[in-house]
């Protein structure tokens, strides 16, 4: 039946449509644009951006590669602190992915760490088209004090962020469920935290389709 008296789509159909929108967005072109080391060379704020943040070696590159279906779009490395720029990727002209430098135990001279930390903070505070920060947390270890500091800074800057638990395949199902519930409880009172904690495994593709769907919904929002 069509027309004004047609029945509403079922929840199952709605979810299938969301997942398909996510698949289509990330199945399209995705190209590295540039690495930014200074705010004056940022791309124009003419489309939504999603930033990926997390401790060094938390799995940012692996998650970006899993979402985009590429093997080496974002380079993974066992060397903490390899990403020392804001790396921008273009998703078919509809959205940008921004890979932020990892924080924590980066093997780099202190002045270098301070410089890229300041650059990241300035980007997060002033980017008008930044729709969300995905804050990656290793599911095996949960939120650490250094993560708490980043969350506090994002709360103060009023930047919406979502916790994404990575490497969930390293936990038993019951452990993963408990970690997700514990993490949600720790962020539920934070003013800028998104009220859903994603559970993912880049190796097993767990949670990837659902995260694609969430990000595709943000891409559909009005551009700045």
Indicate the CATH architecture: 3-Layer(aba) Sandwich
N-to-C span: 37 Å
Beta content: 15-25%
- Secondary-structure-based class equals alpha/beta
Helix content: 25-40%
Compute the number of structural domains. 1
Strand order of the largest sheet: 1-3-4-2-5-6-7
Total number of helices: 6
Explain the overall architecture.
It is a single chain. The protein is α/β, with parallel strands linked by helices and 224 residues long. It has a single domain (32-219), classed as 3-Layer(aba) Sandwich (Rossmann fold), CATH 3.40.50.300. Helices cover 37% and strands 18% of the residues. The chain is built from six helices and seven strands; from the N terminus they run αββαββαβαβαβα. The chain has helices spanning 11-27, 60-68, 110-126, 145-157, 173-187, 208-219; strands spanning 30-36, 49-54, 86-91, 95-99, 130-138, 161-166, 198-199. Strands 1-3-4-2-5-6-7 form a seven-stranded mixed sheet, sandwiched between helices. Helix 1 (11-27) packs across helix 6 (208-219). The longest helix has 17 residues, at 11-27. The protein is globular, with a radius of gyration of 18 Å. The model is unreliable at 76-82 (pLDDT under 50).
